[in-house]
Amino acid sequence: MKPAWNEAAARSCGSALALRAYSSRLIGSDPALVLHGGGNTSLKLDGTLHVKGSGANLAEVREGDFIALDLAALRALLAEDGLADGELMRRVDDCKRMPGAAKPSVETLLHAVLPHAFVEHAHADAVLAVANVAQGEAACMAAFGESAPLVPYRHSGAALARACKAVFERSATDKTIGLILAFHGVIAFGDTARASHDNLLRLVDMAERYLRHHAKEQVLPEPRDPDLAAASAVCAAASAVAGFPLAMKVVSTPETLAFARRPDLALISQQGPPTPQHAIFTKRVPLIDGDVSGFADRYQAYLDRTLGTAAAGRIDAAPRIVLDPRFGLCSLGVNEHYAGVAAEIYLHDIDIITRAGSHGDYRSASEQDIARAELAYGGFERRVLEQISRLAGKP
Question: Residue 90 is part of a domain; what is its CATH number?
Answer without folding.
Answer: 3.40.225.10
